[in-house]
Design brief:
There is one protein chain. The chain is mainly beta. It is 6% helix and 41% strand. The protein has one domain: Jelly Rolls, CATH 2.60.120.10. The strands form three sheets. It has a six-stranded antiparallel beta sheet with strand order 2-3-4-11-6-9, with no helix packed on it. The chain has a three-stranded antiparallel beta sheet with strand order 1-12-5, with no helix packed on it. It is globular. The N and C termini lie close together (9 Å).
Length: 143
Amino acid sequence: MKTVMPSPTHSGREIPPKSRFEALLRRFIPHKEIGWWDIGEVFYRYKLLSTRWFNIYLHQLEAPNWHPVGCHDHPWWFISLLLKSGYLERHGDEYVRRRPGSLLYRPANWSHDVTTPYGRSWSLIVTGPKKRAWGFQPCGEED
């Protein structure tokens, strides 16, 4: 059963950049840190373009642990191009390594969780317009 709730991931904290590139991104590109502090997650979302039809983000994710409340879905469909490091994705009972260069389409009701055992992950994300709220549920349970 899906639980619609405000995401516990919006920490709003600032983590020191690990590179000059990250420092420049944070200085010139609108961004938000939305990582889940309690599990050590660092997640920056850089807003590259926002329209009423679609959005383009650059995601920087360091997720050492699975989310304790299960998997999450999204308020929009999205396409993700993994640029660096990739991640391990859990969906239902499946665990799949997503490598750099992977191009993934996900409908809004796709529930998953990710960790980054291969290093800090960078992805280019294109989303559709917001159609629903974020939610958490057992992995693989979709609307």
